[in-house]
Amino acid sequence: MLARLRTGTAVAPSRNVAIDAYRGLVMLLMMAEVLRLSQVSRAFPGNWFWSFLAFNQTHVAWAGSSLHDMIQPSFSFLVGVALPYSLASRMAKGATAGKLFLHALWRSLLLVALGVFLRSMHSSQTYFTFEDTLSQIGLGYPFLFLLGFKPRKWQWTAFAGVLFGYWLAWALYPVHGAGFAAHWSKTDNFGNAFDDWFLNLFPREKTFVFNSGGYLTLSFIPTLGTMILGLIAGEWLRESGPSIPLKKFFMAGFAGILLGAALHYAGVCPIVKRIWTPSWTLYSGGICFLFLAAFCWVIEVKGYQGWAFPLVVVGMNSIAAYLIAHLFEDFCFSSLRINLGPDFFNFLGRGVQPLLEGGAVLLIYWMMLYWMYRRKVFLRI
After folding, report:
1. What is the pLDDT along the chain (381 residues), one digit of tens a residue?
2. CA angle (78 as vertex; 74, 79 as ends), nearest 5
3. Closest Cα to residue 186, out of 270, 257, 268, 112?
4. Helix (H) or strand (E) holding 286
5. What are phi and psi of 142, to 5 degrees?
6. Which of 51, 186, 245, 339 is the residue whose CA sits 20 to 30 A from 216?
7. Residue 22 · residue 74 · CB < 8 Å
8. Residue of 34, 53, 33, 32 lying closest to 42 (CA atoms)
9. Which residues, in sequence order, are CB contacts of 22 under 8 Å at separation 6+?
10. In whole angstroms, what is the distance from residue 340 CA to residue 330 CA?
11. Residue 130 to residues 49, 95, 273, 323: CA-CA distances in angstroms?
12. SS (HEC) of 261-282
């Protein structure tokens, strides 16, 4: 792929349905927060089924992972997967590397600004914070773009350098707790120290002390590592032609999971999504490789594509899906209650009312995206 880009003979690639479907699943999981499974679970204490679903629709408190924790790394990973296809398509249309890089910078700025905007919706002034998924991707995207033109060994070297350098900065930062694990605490760590300085440079309603969820600006650095893994996966996929590099995907997937888990249990670096530890980058990146392998095997190898259409509708308009989930939730819920009545979804009992009401909202979300899909309206940045 890189050779074709450099010689200017790139051929515009066809869409990969598996990538769109995987992206669609990720965005659907994010939009499905409206199902409020945790609330349903509380209505049925001790029920393992609802407890299992609720667990996988919430972020774990600190170390470990649920399905919900895989949304952001999957979204970031797929940004990397899509980059080789995007570069090849644009180069085939005559774009130069310089113009593409300027576009990458503009895209980065828009993503960061959009993330800040979404985090400011319920504030009395602009709430300058950069832990939103879009902002995190935007901060790392220019570096990812440049790596898209580099040989594979540069990409792996950058990946290793990002993770080791980030781990070392945290390991060497002086903390007040006892033991090495204290370096990865929620509020007394290298990333929070940076935010305590950086975020207070912006106008604020009150002084920033720490993020209650533990989320950090500097998490964009190991998130870049996740995107680099996606970039490598995307290049493997394009270079394989009509075949699918399932062996590489499975090897990378299991290697990432095992290495991340080994670092976690050895006490070297815990698996914590909220601060995006290097071990989380490895662990979640490995899971992303396996997800991609599964989608490619079912859709591209076995040819079962029809079932994925609802996911493809969402996946081909991921930015629109992200905005819909953040901007229309209150409007949809209030509209249903106003026009159907507050007890309309009680017909199966109050315990599952949040699920049924949320399911109606989720259907509205999908219909909006389907309307855009039919009219070929796709939001691009």
Report:
1. 333 343 334 444 456 899 999 999 999 999 999 999 999 999 999 999 999 999 999 999 999 999 999 999 999 999 999 999 999 989 888 889 899 999 999 999 999 999 999 999 989 999 999 999 999 999 999 999 999 999 999 999 999 999 999 999 999 999 988 889 999 999 899 999 999 999 999 999 999 999 999 999 999 999 999 999 999 999 999 998 788 999 999 999 999 999 999 999 999 999 999 999 999 999 999 999 999 999 999 999 999 999 999 999 999 999 999 999 999 999 999 999 999 999 999 999 999 999 999 999 999 999 999 999 999 999 988
2. 120
3. 270
4. helix 278-295
5. -60, -35
6. 51
7. yes
8. 53
9. 74, 78, 291, 292, 295, 311, 315
10. 15
11. 36, 31, 16, 17
12. HHHHHCCCCCCECCCCCHHHHH
Instruction: Locate the domains of the chain by residue range.
Output: 2-374
- Phi and psi at 272, nearest 5°, equal -135, 110
pTM comes to 0.94
* DSSP bridge partners of 272: 63
Question: What type of residue sits at position 329?
Answer: E
